[in-house]
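Shift notes (night). Ran Neutral zinc metallopeptidase while the centrifuge was going.
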Amino acid sequence: MPFYFMFDSTFIFIIIGLVLSALASSYVQSTFNKFSKTRNQNGYTAWEAARMILDNAGLQQVEMDRIKGNLTDNYDSSNKILRLSEATYNSTSVSAIGVAAHEAGHAIQDKEAYVPLKIRSALVPVTNFGQGVSMPLILVGILFGYNQSLINLGILFFSLTFLFQIVTLPVEFNASRRALVILEQQHLLSTDELGQARQVLRAAALTYVAGAIASFLQVLRLVLLFGGGNRRD
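Came back to this:
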């Protein structure tokens, strides 16, 4: 049966991945909320802090935009736009300042041609393609006499997601390190506030670690089910 593998004993890997991701997401949300009640002593909004960081880095050309959502903040390297979520944009909280500085860190990475960021950007279209064709290839391989070549190709394409997650880790960790150094050097946060922002960014980093583990478990599951010519009758 082509869909048998969806409900076999290795499905526990999927459950573990979902639980880890949910726990990490809950932790970052609770940590962000905890320090979202702490107003930074300078009274800067997250928008102002990010704009100052960008301008001091010679990135006046990077535009800033406000987007819907909570913790949907991101830096678009293709269009040179730093987007802050509604929960962050006009907030003066330590949490918001930390998140905004993190995204500004990505813009500085882009300016300096930070290699892991360039690799991650190059992987985006390849990973999206891999996600789209991986499962169809595996299912077609099963339906057509358990064609191991098609199945292995599908697993390989699926593995691109895990590769993307691995490359993402140094990108995110480096952006947070840059953010904390800049916040201290430019006196945007006090010593106590820096410690709080560090907690927020560490919590956010755990979501990427959890994502990488979940992705690895998914790949491992497919390998155990279909790799090496193992056939289930």
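Residues 4-38+95-229 form one domain. The CA atoms of residues 163 and 212 lie 9 Å apart.
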